[in-house]
């Protein structure tokens, strides 16, 4: 049952990601590819297939809905959209405490889109930032010294582990070369470097809670993987401007590789759940 629920939430998050990227001005083809890569990303799918991470999926759903609603407030600053924005934000925080970074993500999107006047953006962001302050005051002190004792080296290792988990197969030399070629050709342009900076900022911000809970770092970088897939999709789309057939081949290759990795993870999760049910049945028999 939880696999079906997780799959539905994961797919819904991918659809919201598509609409979010489209509203930010990304071409629909690139936004569609980003959503497709996110759906098939083995690292993200592992979170979707685990019962313990259902709150994370639900929190991500509300977070993406909050970001979409924020973009709506940029065009239509009426109070009903602001109320809806904060309802989504509160729901995200109640689902999973890692959603504390959503106000920071909203600030980044405010800078990226830059559609509204400064005073309008400030009024929209006032309550999300107030909720962030409440979290810092009341919830952050509950973090144990072991969780909070994060050195720069261990934090960097967690960040690298999370990035490697998002970019499936990057530890394989052939896949590493493929990633390097696609990213390198995109970063050659100044527009690509600016886009990379924006995606990196979103990745690091979304990944911040997991730098504290380092035991979950490599496995639960779910929202951060959306930023990584967006950058990968934009890099492939940029190739299509000059090498259309080659870019299509790259897109299909990545989708197939991700699908194969997701299928393998699905089988492992199914086998693990079956083993857990056998143990549970044995325990009840005794």
- Assembly form of the protein: single chain
Largest sheet: none
- Using only C-alpha atoms, the radius of gyration works out to 20 Å
Q: Output the structural class.
A: mainly alpha
The helix content, as a percent range, equals: over 70%
Low-confidence stretches: 116-124, 137-149, 275-286
Strand content: under 5%
Sum this structure up briefly.
By secondary structure, this protein is an all-alpha fold. 81% of the residues lie in helices and 0% in strands.
Give an account of the 3D structure.
Residues 116-124, 137-149 and 275-286 have low confidence and may be disordered. With 286 residues, the protein is mainly alpha-helical. The chain has a domain at 149-286. The protein has helices at 2-23, 28-40, 42-48, 54-75, 79-95, 102-113, 118-138, 145-148, 152-166, 173-187, 190-212, 222-239, 244-285. The protein is globular and about 50 Å long. It contains 13 helices and no strands.
Helix and strand arrangement:
Blueprint: H1 2-23, H2 28-40, H3 42-48, H4 54-75, H5 79-95, H6 102-113, H7 118-138, H8 145-148, H9 152-166, H10 173-187, H11 190-212, H12 222-239, H13 244-285
Helix pairs in contact: 1-2, 1-3, 1-4, 2-12, 2-13, 3-13, 4-5, 4-6, 5-7, 6-7, 6-11, 9-11, 9-12, 10-12, 11-12, 12-13
């Amino acid at each position: 049952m939880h696999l079906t629920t997780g799959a539905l939430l994961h797919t819904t998050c991918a659809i919201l990601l598509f609409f979010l990227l489209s509203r930010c001005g990304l071409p629909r083809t690139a936004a569609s590819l980003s959503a497709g890569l996110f759906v098939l990303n083995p690292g993200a799918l592992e979170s979707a297939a685990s019962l313990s991470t259902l709150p994370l999926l639900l929190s991500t759903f509300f977070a993406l809905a909050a970001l979409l609603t924020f973009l709506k407030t940029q065009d239509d600053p009426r109070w009903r959209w602001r109320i809806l924005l904060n309802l989504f934000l509160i729901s995200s925080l109640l689902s999973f405490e890692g959603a504390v970074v959503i106000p920071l993500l909203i600030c980044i999107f405010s800078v990226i889109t830059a559609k509204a006047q400064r005073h309008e953006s400030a009024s929209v962001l006032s309550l999300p930032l107030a909720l962030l302050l409440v979290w810092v005051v009341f919830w952050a002190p509950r973090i144990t010294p072991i969780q909070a004792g994060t050195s720069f080296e261990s934090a960097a290792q967690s960040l690298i582990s999370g990035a490697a988990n998002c970019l499936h197969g990057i530890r394989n030399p052939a896949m590493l070369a493929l990633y390097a070629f696609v990213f390198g050709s995109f970063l050659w342009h100044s527009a690509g470097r600016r886009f990379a900076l924006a995606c990196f900022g979103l990745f690091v911000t979304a990944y911040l809670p997991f730098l504290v809970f380092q035991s979950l770092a490599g496995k639960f970088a779910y929202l951060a993987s959306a930023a990584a897939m967006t950058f990968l999709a934009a890099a492939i789309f940029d190739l299509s401007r000059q090498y259309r057939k080659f870019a299509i081949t790259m897109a299909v290759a990545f989708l197939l590789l991700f699908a194969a990795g997701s299928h393998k993870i699905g089988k492992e999760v199914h086998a693990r759940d079956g083993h857990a049910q056998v143990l549970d049945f044995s325990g009840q028999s005794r």
